[in-house]
From TrEMBL:
InterPro entries: DinB/YfiT-like (IPR034660), MST-like (IPR007061). Residues 18-37 are annotated as: Disordered. This is DinB family protein. It comes from Nakamurella flava.
Amino acid sequence: MTERPERWTQATVYPDMWVNPQNDPRNTDGVSPDGELPTLQDYLRDYRLTLTMKCEGLDAEQLARRSVPPSSLSLLGLVRHLAEVERDWRTWVRPDRPLDKLYGPDGGDFAGAVGDPAVVDGAFADLAREQRETDELLDRYPDLGERVGDQGIALREIWVHRIDEYARHCGHADLLRECIDGRVGQ
């Protein structure tokens, strides 16, 4: 990218926000959730929404735009990558049912993130499906101390790892989006 976009935000109430509080789907009325599992679910929901919000309003070429050479990092690549890891987490829980990679081996999630509207639509459909299937599997395990899989991983660790994965990639998405069109905000 040769020209630098001007920084801007859609928010008018707080200049460091992505959108105004009344338009932010991550805002909920009332007190925080009671209990550990509902708190983890709430955080994961918000990070998933953040990733989606960072991608909104961009066309296929913009979503597929790479960060800086030689990196293959792009917003579309992140969407595809998170679909892959959602799928992989199910294998942590059920190693007897291994799942094939969605986009092939060796970084196909990022390498195949090209500026084609069909690829974009497919990536978001894949992510939604993989999130739903992982959520449905984990709903069967309400005890966060229960150990699953051949490694005996505690469910709590899987939940925290999921939040960590989305949070890290939402940080990448912040920088990618700012480079694409200058839009900033948490």
